[in-house]
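Office hours follow-up: a student asked to see two folded examples consecutively, so here they are.
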Amino acid sequence: MSMNMEAFVLGCGGMMPLPYRHLTSVLLRRDGDLFLFDCGEGTQVSLKRLNLKWKKIDAIFISHTHADHVTGLPGIMMLSSQVDRTEPLYIYGPPKVAEYVESSRKVLDMYINYPVIVKEITAPCIVHEGDGFYIRAFPLQHTKTCVGYTLEELDRPGEFNPEKAESLGIPRGPLWGRLQRGESVTLENGRTVEPGDVMGERRSGRKFSFVTDTQYIPSIADEVRGSDLLICEGMFDDSCAEQAKEKKHMTSRQAARIARDSNSARMAMIHYSPRYTDRELPVLLEQAREVFPAAELTRDRMVFDIPYVD
């Protein structure tokens, strides 16, 4: 069954919001599931401007507890209370996320009409699972504990071949459905037909990766390998390489190296330093494209469709 997957960039800025650039946040929609990655200041403004049916966000994934990645969280939690909701909201992130959520709820006297489940990540692991996919957290290297995330779909069954089924004498109906679900069936003549007799090769699912606030480390490429869309920090250009190193951030060229080494299909940069105006961002793109030609710049409220490859 095919499912739509889209990534909405709600904010592409780092450190401080600018009039035309909210702080880092990306919403991933996979059919009916909504996942938010980071929640900087201005997140709910972009959600409103995109007119998304977003109040039922399933889970929020926080990279780290620096202000420019979490200050939008209390507002999102309060706005989610404006609809009837029984499903829990899951919030994942490194240590201190629970304390931040708890103290915000207490100090702001938040009215929350749904369960909030906060889980802190202390080691690389699968943090969230659903029908046909899982989301994994892995370590980055920043000035405080920081994690990246990948959403990976499981392989899908191959395509069913009706002509083959008919030539094997399998009557149209429930037996076709059972074969498509991966069950073997026995015909009236006693012959057993395996799903592989009528199904094509298994087809791969999609992969989305979110990496921000880290210095360059080769292990990131292993984690995000084969991404259909890699959203990756590209905070500085080459002339600021020393500053990037000192602040444990990446240049756009280093982001491109991760995209190239991981065989990702597309890489879109995020979390730009406020030193670059929109007019100056193309320098980041030029340097990234020297290493990875499929590099792109994100802008606030940009939408990326993530189709199946086949």
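And the second, which I mentioned at the end of office hours:
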Amino acid sequence: MRSTRTSAAPRRGRRDRLVAAAGLAAALALTATACGGSGEDRAADKPGATASRSGDGADAGLAIPSDLADRLKDHGIDVDEWKKGGWQDWDKDKWLSAAKDFVNPVIEGLWKPERMQSAEAADKTISTKDASADAGVSDPEPAPVEAAAERTPYHDNAAPVGKIFFDSPEGHMVCSGTVIKDVNNPGRSNLVWTAGHCVHAGAGGGWYRNIVFVPAYNDLGKSEAELGGAAPAEIAPYGNWWADWASTSNGWIEGGSETGGSGAAHDYAVLHVRPEQGAKSLEETVGAALDVDFSAPAAAEAGKMGAWGYPAAAPYNGLKMFKCVDQPGRLSLSPSLPTMYRIGCTMTGGSSGGGWFRVVDGETKLVSNTSIGPVDNTWLAGPQLGRDARTLYENMSKTYGDR
């Protein structure tokens, strides 16, 4: 989620931006109470696609549909060995890249606290040339906004926000995500919004594995030393939620790369999740979910935006939730690509996929997600969510939402 620094440009006044940020912080509300009512004291600090199905697990219930099992066998994968550790085989010829071949069966107990803490940030970098390719459209580079720690407990202040853990060929990785509402399953959503690069490697790569969402991770914001003796409920207050379906944009699958590539402007994804244990929906369990704003407002007309996430690269360690609030500007990587939003923010890798929020008619809505940023960690950029993103979301909701 990082890039090399772009060429210098005039920066907006820091004092004006801090005043504006305070105004949005007073309006943003991510909890069930704040989204649905007043609660002024809490609101003051809060904040064209393809889809795939995984099976459920049998000793944790592994049960992969026969048609998917046949396709996996075509790739040389023994589905009976997958859950026993076969998922660790990252042979390029067997690394599934077709959306229809996504597989992510529940492996109960895999994501233990120590495994979570060993996960590293899923960084994305872009070149200086790419970042300034359309300087005539891009707004001046924003001044940095220092990320502020979210108040604890997170389940009272930012319940829909959480961490995403997954395995890649490079090891255990982390991103951030947000519980969103499901239009076809009101009050019972199992949908999570994140970045495309948190679920799929992009062009020439494939789907990541063992993807899990943990809402309100490290609920009390404990230090690494304190987490050594923490109860499971303090680390994962709502449990672990495995992605059994995943959707990301064709733009990311075809153009995404280690440097963001042309896929950066389409770097978004939706997960359908199921609990490792339990029967209630994610929204019922967490008690909160946010609507997604697909109007893709122009940056100058969007008002202030806030980004939430779990930055994991230095100087952060991925254990605590942070937030930034700023007036967005435009970042254009190419005249042929949609313009991205850009805000000042010092969050680092690990915050990738974390939601960006704005207030629309008094309601907090997700409007983007963290995708890329500079190597000196002074700003973040996220995709505009327009017609293609809406189609991805609606297909996910209609086809998989009630499963």
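Two things to take away from it. Confidence is low (pLDDT under 50) at residues 1-24, 32-45, 55-62, 125-130. The longest strand covers residues 171-180.
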